[in-house]
Amino acid sequence: MPALPMWSKTNELDAENAIFPLSSQNHAFRRGSNAFIPHLCVNGDLSEYLKEKGPLSEECSRKFFTQLCEAVQYLHGIDVAHRDLKCENLLLDRNHNIKGRVELSNTFCGTNSYASPEVLRSKPYNPVAADVWSMGVILYKMLYNVLPYPSANLMRMVQLQTRNSVNFPDTPTVSPPANALIQSMLHPDMEYRISVASIMQSPWVEGVPSEKKLTILCRIFCELKGTLCNFLCKKINKSIVF
């Protein structure tokens, strides 16, 4: 697939670095090289937060990640791709809500450890799908506090990326739905990589706890079982001849 333009409706946004709230309102873009809004990032960035706190709980990660998803979904909706999503570009305000720093460019860009295999191999790519890959790396980093692929050897990292196999450590314990979501974002083929819209509708992002789902399934099973038992009993009673 040929690369999509990084932006079409927003060519007037020529800021190389612009800090903006991760929501669809109150954007803080500014023409020029830099736009800094100190009150939006008084608690540093997500990378610093992880160094201090270590792996985040799924509840905390879900909060941060949902805010990221909403922002990226908005940007993609106006034909803007970020192309350098990483923990260092996710800033924390005084209430520990995620804010973002956008770096706009029309060339191959990004940070190796967060970049998708097609970007690292300098192939034509879809920047929207490349953003999704970076989001997968960010979620992995939030939950495990390590990166999914070692970046010391670029060639080796690309080989690991293209195997379509993600190594999930035994500790900390992370739920299967979270790992499955990460796996779908880190698909090496951008054609099969999950979309942001599907991410937003995933069970993990929607926040339905596994135990709640299990309870619902058990209740449904019991109801079905009771209905089936009643049906069989009626059939058996009709077939009995005294």
From TrEMBL:
Give the source lineage, highest ranks first.
Answer: Eukaryota, Metazoa, Chordata, Craniata, Vertebrata
Database matches in Pfam families: Pkinase
Q: What superkingdom heads the lineage?
A: Eukaryota
- The Protein kinase domain covers 1-205
KW Kinase (keyword) present: yes
**Coiled coil start-end:** none
> What's an example GO BP annotation here?
mitotic G2 DNA damage checkpoint signaling
Keywords in alphabetical order:
ATP-binding, Kinase, Nucleotide-binding, Serine/threonine-protein kinase, Transferase
Report the GO molecular function annotations: ATP binding; protein serine/threonine kinase activity
Source organism of this protein record:
Neogobius melanostomus (round goby)
What's the protein name?
A: non-specific serine/threonine protein kinase
Q: Which residues cross the membrane?
A: none
